[in-house]
Design a protein that fits this description.
The complex is a heterodimer of chains A (about 100) and B (about 130). With about 100 residues, chain A is of the alpha/beta class. In chain A, about 30% of the residues lie in helices and about 25% in strands. The longest helix of chain B has 15 residues. Classes of the chains: A alpha/beta (about 100), B alpha/beta (about 130). Chain B: This is tRNA 2-thiouridine synthesizing protein D.
């Protein structure tokens, strides 16, 4: 059973550690909205993301990266809306962290 | 694949726009939307009383057009709507309020509709936050 986790809140508002603790080895994380702020290299959130096993895929919504002038670091795959839909189909469940 | 989409944020939150773009992509990809469910502040998306600033997207209008165009099953949580003053003609009459702030294509119903949507769909995708 694999799960795609959707994060939309800033990591300063919704600490990542509680989320990451529940990620399975084959789960994936899709960052959208202010959750993309976790991709600021050097931030605490970014360091936490580095601790994830290599099997956990990381995605970020492309338009939210652009809106924040963030480049997708290595390991992070930018996705548009059609790709977002296909990811939902690809994983067994979708868990939105509200 | 069958999708159910739930929205917890109001029209002026980025999550509302994100949910609508996602819903459009679901249909464009040939998938089906079995139900849209609007909960908590998400019920404001069904309000026809909100006026968006001229230089901002009118997400409530965009949702209304999208739902009407595709004749989607779109349920607004009735308890969340009542407490926020989002009333259709029937509820305005029932509670003796002068203002009617929602109507077709929206349907006011209970939280059980979200549970049912989760059973009917292959995927339930919830949008909220910022």
């Amino acid at each position: 059973m694999t799960t795609l986790h959707l994060l939309s809140q800033s990591p300063w508002r919704q600490p990542l550690d509680s989320v990451l603790r529940l990620l399975g080895a084959d789960d994936a994380l899709l960052l959208c909205g202010d959750a993309c702020q976790a991709l600021h290299t050097g931030s605490e959130a970014w360091s936490l993301l580095q601790t994830l096993p290599a099997t956990v895929r990381l995605y970020a919504l492309q338009e939210d990266l652009q809106a924040r002038n963030l480049g997708a670091a290595e390991r992070v795959t930018p996705v548009d809306y059609p790709a977002f839909v296909e990811l939902c189909a690809q994983y067994d469940k979708v868990n939105g962290w509200l | 694949m069958k999708f159910a989409i739930a929205l917890f944020s109001p029209p002026h939150a980025p999550a509302s726009r994100r949910a609508l773009r996602f819903a459009e992509a679901v249909l464009a990809s040939g998938h089906e939307i079995v139900r849209l469910f609007f909960y908590r502040d998400g019920v404001y998306n069904a309000s026809c009383a909100m006026v968006a600033p001229q230089d901002e997207l009118d997400m409530a209008a965009q949702w209304r057009a999208f739902v009407a165009e595709h004749r989607l099953d779109s349920v607004v949580c009735i308890a969340a709507a009542l407490r926020r003053g989002v009333l259709n003609a029937e509820e305005a009459r029932r509670y003796e309020r002068e203002a009617i702030s929602t109507g077709a294509p929206w349907e006011l119903s209970g939280l059980g509709q979200l549970h049912e949507a989760a059973q009917l769909a292959d995927r339930l995708v919830c949008f909220g936050g910022d």
